[in-house]
Amino acid sequence: MDIASSEVSDAGTLVACRSCQARHGVVCGALSSSQLRELGRHSLRRKVDAGSEIIAQGAESSFYSNIMRGVVKLCKVMPDGRQQIVGLQFAPDFVGRPFVRESTLSAEAATDSEICVFPRNLLDRMISGTPELQRSLHDQALKELDAAREWMLTLGRRTAEEKVASLLHLIATHAEPQTATSTAFDLPLTRAEIADFLGLTIETVSRQMTRLRKSGVIRIENFRHIIVPDMDELERMISA
Amino acid sequence: MDIASSEVSDAGTLVACRSCQARHGVVCGALSSSQLRELGRHSLRRKVDAGSEIIAQGAESSFYSNIMRGVVKLCKVMPDGRQQIVGLQFAPDFVGRPFVRESTLSAEAATDSEICVFPRNLLDRMISGTPELQRSLHDQALKELDAAREWMLTLGRRTAEEKVASLLHLIATHAEPQTATSTAFDLPLTRAEIADFLGLTIETVSRQMTRLRKSGVIRIENFRHIIVPDMDELERMISA
DNA sequence: CGGAAACTTTGATCTGGATCAAATCGCAAT
DNA sequence: ATTGCGATTTGATCCAGATCAAAGTTTCCG
């Protein structure tokens, strides 16, 4: 293992990683079996507790990760403490900014997660020699760009109620549906995190959630578990 | 010329394009001279008037462009007419979404512009065979992603005054400075467009501009020409 | 040159979401 | 069970920015 353990061991449990060899993750799908074996030799499966940082804003990082399980939030913080979540990532997304060592944002596990960590040097070398991998990472960047721009519309032009509905819709999209129309899931974010994603306050988020509940669009159990009886109804609230 | 003129001639003047052969633009820098010659044979220099569309939201497009001169705004519109500008692009940026025919946003010239238009098929083929080009487009996508996320922070967490200052700062960044500290430029956007970029109304934009003027951070001539005597002062307003 | 249309500023008022302030809930530790 | 604490909800009030309404400016075209 050539990953300095000081970099990755302070917030989770390290176990040997065989997952990449099993072709999980955005990166692994684009590699040959010999590359996979090499990457596997140098990667670590890491459990990350909810709330712990994977990459710090402004810090240099010498590794990348694939998300194997859980939800990761990408966050920007201003000097005065104001905070904006600029993206959510789900398995099997790739975490890390190719080609640039310093990160302009932090990546933090929103739920208990598992990631597969591998060294930047090795992957950068593989990218150069593997057009398919370059393409795969390019695709992920374009996907994230689309998501970011869609969210800019939400932040700039939607009302608080539409914002909360948009968030529920986004998360519901990553849960497997119960039936043709209904979906249920656990929120991976606290009210404070939802507020930081939507550019609102926790009070407004809470009020809009109870509004949605009272109007029958969602049911809420234990603050965290959301049931959407009819996804179409949720979509109609977003006018998109 | 194998670009259907119906696609590109309705809003500008077409002239034969030699600019790509001269290695302008994000795309052209990554091509060999024989590829440049081929691309040049199939590209058109097009003049685009301010306000005319380059790509329509939801439409399929069979061409890409390089911006040679001018400013292009990327815009998302909701069914009810609410609108959000999700990015500004300057020469020599690339316009178009690689690999995906249908655009989720519209690209429109904000100022009178010149773009170099070339066929999607040809460039897609060149991307596959030219890792350097793939890398160059990947870099542009990552740059746009950083810009989008930076703007999400602005939309979600900054005040109206900070938003307007952020916009002026963004545009000033793309103008060449007058002296070490001072910069001057013509705004490429109307107040309505600024409002759609910042998630505000035109009245609020106008009021904040006069506030900045009265506090001496900027001078305004003819509504459109902005003079920033001290860029540091502008940056301090953004707290970033 | 005139005059209309589009853009911008300015003023008055309103309101959606922020802020301030308690309750209430749920859960972990004792 | 009890306590204590963080997360959430709910209520009361406030205010930044929206909305409504004129009144300038500028541009452009006949």
UniProtKB/TrEMBL annotation, chains A, B:
- Residue ranges occupied by any HTH crp-type domain in the UniProt entry: 158-232
Could you tell me one molecular function GO term of this UniProt entry? DNA binding
SMART domains from the UniProt entry: cNMP, HTH_CRP
What keywords sit in the KW lines? DNA-binding, Nitrogen fixation, Transcription, Transcription regulation
Give the CC-aspect GO terms. Answer: cytosol
Quote the CDD domains the UniProt record gives: CAP_ED (cd00038), HTH_CRP (cd00092)
Matching entries from SUPFAM superfamilies are given as: cAMP-binding domain-like (SSF51206), Winged helix' DNA-binding domain (SSF46785)
Instruction: State the InterPro entries in the record.
Output: cNMP-bd_dom (IPR000595), cNMP-bd_dom_sf (IPR018490), Env_Response_Regulators (IPR050397), HTH_CRP (IPR012318), RmlC-like_jellyroll (IPR014710), Tscrpt_reg_HTH_Crp-type_CS (IPR018335), WH-like_DNA-bd_sf (IPR036388), WH_DNA-bd_sf (IPR036390)
Every copy of the Cyclic nucleotide-binding domain together lies at: 27-144
Q: What is this protein called?
A: Crp/Fnr family transcriptional regulator
From which source organism is this entry? Rhizobium laguerreae
